[in-house]
Amino acid sequence: MPDAIPVFTETMAQRLMDFLDARERPKGTMGYFDLSGFLFALAGAPDLVPPSEWLPLVFDEHDPGFKDSSEAGKILPTILSLYNAVIEETEKEQPALPPLCAIRASAVENFDETAPLHHWSRGLVVGYEYMSDVWDELLPRDLVEELGGALMIMSFFTSRELAEKYLKEFHAKEMDFSERAMIIVDSLPLAMATYARMGWAIRHAMSESPEGPPAPTRAEKAGRNDPCPCG
Predict the structure, then answer these.
(1) In tens digits, what is the pLDDT along the chain, a chain of 231 residues?
(2) pTM value?
């Protein structure tokens, strides 16, 4: 009988971070925070994606470079444990940033290349792009704007250039940039809950439909610096 997937912990988060950041990993491997954002986008989408589909993307479709079967036997269950934790949180509509993903006190510092939230946002965009065809197919038209708002908040810290573009489009000039960035930080939990609620509501509705869920479709893998298609 196979071992059960363990509950995800901070210790496991650190182990996964160290593994993904190691120089032995192939170029293009997601870091821990990028992976967490990516998995959140998948877990909250209208169609559940099996690990066999998304695991290769973690390593940019290259060999992960496990030194032996023992290391693979530790890391793969750790990744699946993180995925299971995110699925459980999104299903309960109680999503949270992953362990060790600290938000920096000064909101604008979360744009820094070393900031965990910056990387989580990048991974979120990659994951949403991967599931965008499913969202486009299944999301009711009257909810498009609501989803776009949630995506804008969650992807805000992908880059300062993108964030300034968002604020310009929304004519948000009455506050300075740092004040707006802090509002986005405060709005993040609600945006995450909104994304999860919408995805799971569609998923449940499709599972109860007499026709059953449609055949899943997938978009091409997005680049991590591509702009978010938030509308």
Answers:
(1) 345 678 899 999 999 999 999 999 999 999 999 999 999 999 999 999 999 999 999 999 999 999 999 999 999 999 999 999 999 999 998 999 999 999 999 999 999 999 999 999 999 999 999 999 999 999 999 999 999 999 999 999 999 999 999 888 876 666 789 999 999 999 999 999 999 999 999 999 988 766 655 544 445 544 444 545 454
(2) 0.89
**What's the chain's Rg over C-alpha atoms?**
18
Quote the Cα angle for 217-220-222, to 5°: 130
CATH assignment of the domain containing 44: 1.20.120.740
Distance in angstroms between the alpha carbons of the first and the last residue of the chain? 47
Q: How many domains does the chain have?
A: 1
